[in-house]
Specification:
This protein is of the alpha+beta class. It is built from 11 helices and 5 strands; from the N terminus they run αααααααααβββαββα. The protein folds into 2 domains: about 70 residues, no CATH class; about 200 residues, Lambda Exonuclease, Chain A. A 5-stranded mixed β-sheet has the order 1-2-3-4-5, with helices on both faces. The N terminus is likely disordered. It binds one DNA strand through helix 6, helix 7 and strand 2.
Amino acid sequence: MRVCALCSLSVARAGLGSGLFSLRRSFSSLPALCARKKSSEYSCVDSEHYSSLVRAVVSTRTSAQTPESIESEDARLFGAVVRSKPRQAPKKTLKNPCPLLNEAKSSIWSEHEEGAMTRIALQRNSDQPALPSVTKVLQKTMSASQLFYLERWKRRKIAELGEEGFKEYSMNLFKQGKLFHAAIEAALTQETPPKEDVECPECPDEVAGYLQSISHVLEDVTGVRAIESVVEHQSLKYLGIMDCVAMYRGSLCVIDWKTSEKPKPFLHNTYDNPLQVAAYIGALNSDNNYSYQVENGLIVVAYKDGSPAHSHRLSAEQVTQYWEKWLFRLEEYKEKDV
DNA sequence: GGATCCTTCTTCTTCTTC
């Protein structure tokens, strides 16, 4: 039996069995009638003729619907509801819990403390097995849904730009990120960045918008303690390179600068970035190359058009929560890696 | 000189109607 989409939907929602069958009978010839005309199917309805029927179906006075009545009606129409068993995810426990803070380090660094800026470069010791990096761990332990959405995004982009176009697009994103980081480094250290880090003949002022975007954030960044510096967790055996450690509005933070095409006004828009920052903070606190400890984090998302960057502060409590999530991911990585 | 490393980014439903 052919039924207009609107009719079947409305009646099913109204949950009136008898009304459903009479309505279906009454409207069953509509599509055929409408097909002869180009106009909308709904314009063919003789609303005056059917007005009492429609009123009867949708009126709450004649149908005191309750969740129970709707459910029993649905069961009659569509069969019994198959309910999945509520799954209680077992509370996972860390096999190797590790504190975020380091008792051996006396206190959180204060703004008035003197100290040189640290910039430890990455060095590979070929004699020892390579430690996993923060980025690698996060990439290798993405959830199935994360991978699904990323893969879908990639497929859509390739469909839009072609394989070569996509490669170029990706390379350009990375390039912009690198140029942006070099420009921030120069701004925070008052140093002139290496020529190759800022020059981009085919794209002048490539990072001008990004710098404009973060200008209001930079005003609150003082006392830079580290830039592009390697941190290594002494016991958990992983490493990473922090963007920056500095004072931001009164607290010492590990700062991560990001560029983004899409606005990221909320912390959850930044996906694994908070875990990345927590991982750096934990490593920094355990690393004896740094005499101080850090409790807070900051993620700054800059935009090319110069619109104000979104900055997401991570309180000490939030960092602790993300630290625990990071530890789970690290355990997962190590289990996979074995 | 070449290879490798870390990082740089990318994600969250989708449609109609007013």
